[in-house]
Each structure stands twice: as C-alpha cells, then as structure tokens.
Amino acid sequence: MRPVGPHRVRLRTAVLTGAALVAAVAGCVFAAVGTVAADGSRAEAAAGPVTAARAVVGTAAGATVIDPADRPAAPTLAGDDLDGKPVGLDGLRGNVVVLNVWGSWCGPCRAEADDLARIDRQTRDQGVRFLGINTRDPDRAAARSFVRAHDIGFPSLHDPTGELLLRFPPALLNPQAIPSTLVIDRRGRIAVSIGGPVTGDELGPLLSRVTEEAP
Q1: Mean pLDDT confidence for 155-181
Q2: Cα separations (Å) of 190 from 73, 99, 123, 145?
Q3: Which of 2, 42, 81, 127 has its C-alpha lying 20 to 30 A from 140's C-alpha?
Q4: DSSP string computed for 70-94
C-alpha cells in the first residue's frame, strides 16, 4: 500500500448517488478518489490504492473513508475569515469538523451550498462544526455575497492563492478539485474525503458515522 503523506492509509469505498455526480461545470475539476454508499457503508476498493494521479481523472465526485487507525492528522489551519476575524481548526478540536473548500466562481459550489448550510444548522447540537476555505476569490466581497445568498452560517478562511490547500495530502484533498469536503474527527484526523460536490443525502450518513464514534 502506498503512503499518503507521512501516513499509510487503508482506503475503503462505495458509490455516491445523486445529482452531484452529474453536476460537472467547466472550471471545476472533480476528483474521483473512490466510492461510498449513500448509507455510509464501506466496500473494498476494486482498483487498488488511491494515488494523486488517479485523484484527478474522472468527472464524477467520489468519497474516501479512512479507517480510524490509519487516519492522518489534519494540518494546522489558521487565518482570517471573510470579515477579517481570526479563525482556525485548533479552536474546533473536540468537535467533528466538516471542512468545505469552495469559491464564489464555482458552479458546483453553488449547487451544494444550500445543503451544507442546512446540515450545519441541523448538526450543531451533535458536536459538529463547519469551516470553509474560500479559495481563489481575490475579492472578499464576492465571497461574502455568496455567503449571504446561501444563508451560510459558518466561517470560512480566506485563501485567495490556494496556499492552505497545499498543506493537505493531495490524494485526500486535490487543490484542483473544487469543491471538496473533508470530515475531520474529534481527534483532529481526516476521516472522510470527498472530491467534488456533495448533497445532504450523501454527506449525512458519512457524517453520522464519524459523530457516532467514541471520543
């Protein structure tokens, strides 16, 4: 099994269903890194280990679920949000974190935004926190307009150059795959990686798997 960054992970996968699989829009690259069933169940990957090269070939969104014993630590993320206020991952430790990478210029990001905003509101009482990374938006005003249009209640780090994305293992977060979503467990480890847009029906069961784990 090939290593991902400094860690070796065993990847288990199944097929994501829904409109997100066909929401291909020019300008956004979707990473087909595996499959996850709508109920969050896992199956062995038939094509072998995921690599950075495979992560950018397909046009369908995919998800990768990582066994708890093999999860790599999420990198340190800190900076200013879209209003210039400090925000970061460290302050969210102890919660399950949904980290969503998006841009106001990205069509699939608009398609998934309402579902993400809804799940954020529904899961706060379950110890779940959402954090965005707004990428390649030089003008914060455009990003703030996106947030208002979709009634997004969670903060987003402003990352106009994409520098923050380069801190992640590329097989789990491809900097060219926008949108992308990670689920980070209570111990600060990457538990789920989703390349491409995701619906609420797809994210919900995956998120539940992680929230139901023992602290």
Answers
A1: 96
A2: 6, 10, 19, 30
A3: 127
A4: GPPBPPP-EEEBTTS-EEESGGGTT
